[in-house]
Amino acid sequence: MIKIAESNDCQLIAKLNKTVHELHRSWYPEIFQPYDHQQILAFFKGIIQKPEFTFLIIESNATPAGFAWIENKTHPGIAYRKSYQSIYVHQISIEEAFQARGLGAKLMEEIKERAVSQGINRIELDYWAANEPAKAFYTKQGFQPYRESVYKLLW
């Protein structure tokens, strides 16, 4: 049985963050620090009560299998851009033992339903360029690029 629910359990969120954190670190060790549960826990404790953030836990047969960290954003209009609202997906992660079972798709469906229920028609996210599995997953979910970030190292 699959269950998705909001959670403020920082211990669990920090633990579930390890999978995605270590994946990012494997691709970009020059950017990501080694996973440190206490530091990650302190980070999530510092943001968990912010009203714009929501943390969703997905369980499979009462076992935590992954999470999503989302944010309700309001983008104010400026001289050249209209104002709009979006739900921004900061992180989505499924534990290795539960991958390839459709749980990520179920989390994305929950996020979509939340957006629609709030009258928000845009879900935004980004992923690291080396993360080909994320690119394939989000493409399959119907996401399309409209902006790219690039960088140049100077030393």
TrEMBL record:
InterPro entries: Acyl_CoA_acyltransferase (IPR016181), Diverse_Substrate_AcTransf (IPR051016), GNAT_dom (IPR000182). Keywords: Acyltransferase, Transferase. SUPFAM superfamilies: Acyl-CoA N-acyltransferases (Nat). Transmembrane segments: none annotated. Residues 11-155 form the N-acetyltransferase domain. The keyword Transferase applies. This is Acetyltransferase (GNAT) family protein. It comes from Sediminibacillus albus.
